[in-house]
């Protein structure tokens, strides 16, 4: 049977998830405003190495029809968002999914990586490209969350939490990706500003984001420790 809820409450969803994980329930199914959600107990998953311990039961076969179909109520409206919307992700923003990345003091929900992974996984069932953009926006805001000053956090994080703005993580270059220390983009101080010089490529949300965290060398003498993340707003001169 499927338990039906009147609205999508992330905190309530987290409580239910914790309950499932602490019990011997293998799976629980919910329906929220026509959206079907399946929460699986990790105890019943196969170990990462691909072998099953004798004391662990075989995981039940999962069928795609039993899984979340967010495409219709959320992802479907992503493509039909009107031109007056401040962001094409306004519909996902209304579902509060962007708030999962961000602490409560900056208008987020202060949840953990599990909830973010759950949201990304379920969005991908509807449309992988939307899920990728969603996850990339979370990646783009991490430098602000980890290293930004209080003024920067208060300015940018609430906008990203609401889905009003989309973020991008600007690291990859032609000769630098996983080897982040090889970036050639530079940022030199010029009065109250930094002047960026360089080229980035393969940046998810690169053409759609409103807030970019661009990695550049600000002190080449320090080698890999001489890199900084520069916040660049869409429309900045250059």
Summarize the structure.
By secondary structure, the protein is an alpha/beta fold. It is built from six helices and eight strands.
Q: What keywords describe this structure?
A:
single chain; alpha/beta; Butyryl-Coa Dehydrogenase, subunit A, domain 1; Butyryl-CoA Dehydrogenase, subunit A, domain 2; 2 domains; three-stranded mixed sheet; Acyl-CoA oxidase/dehydrogenase middle domain-containing protein; Acyl-CoA_DH_CS; acyl-CoA dehydrogenase activity; Acyl-CoA_Oxase/DH_mid-dom; flavin adenine dinucleotide binding
**Shape-level CATH architecture of the largest domain:** Orthogonal Bundle
Number of helices: 6
Query: Radius of gyration in whole Å, from Cα?
Result: 21 Å
Biggest sheet strand order reads 1-2-3
Please bin the fraction of helical residues. 25-40%
Distance from N terminus to C terminus (CA atoms, Å) equals 57 Å
Binned strand content: 15-25%
Shape: elongated
Characterize the main sheet: 3 strands, mixed
Q: Which fold name corresponds to the CATH topology of the largest domain?
A: Butyryl-Coa Dehydrogenase, subunit A, domain 1
CATH class of the largest domain: Mainly Alpha
Q: Say how many strands there are.
A: 8
**Mean pLDDT across all amino acids:** 78
């Amino acid at each position: 049977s499927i338990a039906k809820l009147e609205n999508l409450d992330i905190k309530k969803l987290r409580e239910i998830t914790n309950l499932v994980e602490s019990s011997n329930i293998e799976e629980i199914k919910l329906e929220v405003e026509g959206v079907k959600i399946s929460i699986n107990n990790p105890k019943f998953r196969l170990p990462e190495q691909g072998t099953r311990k004798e004391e662990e039961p075989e995981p039940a076969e999962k069928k795609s029809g039993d899984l979340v179909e967010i495409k219709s109520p959320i992802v479907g409206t992503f493509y039909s968002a009107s031109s007056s919307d401040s962001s094409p992700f306004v519909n996902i923003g209304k579902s509060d999914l962007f708030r999962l990345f961000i602490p409560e003091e900056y208008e987020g929900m202060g949840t953990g990586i599990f909830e973010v992974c759950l949201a990304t996984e379920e969005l991908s069932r509807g449309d992988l490209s939307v899920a990728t953009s969603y996850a990339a926006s979370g990646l783009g805001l991490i430098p602000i969350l980890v290293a930004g000053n209080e003024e920067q956090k208060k300015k940018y994080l609430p906008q990203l939490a609401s889905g009003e703005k989309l973020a991008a993580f600007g690291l990859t270059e032609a000769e630098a990706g996983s080897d982040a220390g090889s970036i050639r983009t530079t940022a030199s101080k010029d009065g109250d500003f930094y002047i960026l010089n360089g080229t980035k490529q393969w940046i998810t949300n690169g053409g759609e984001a409103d807030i970019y965290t661009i990695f550049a060398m600000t002190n080449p003498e320090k080698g890999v420790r001489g890199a900084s993340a520069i916040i660049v707003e869409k429309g900045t001169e250059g």
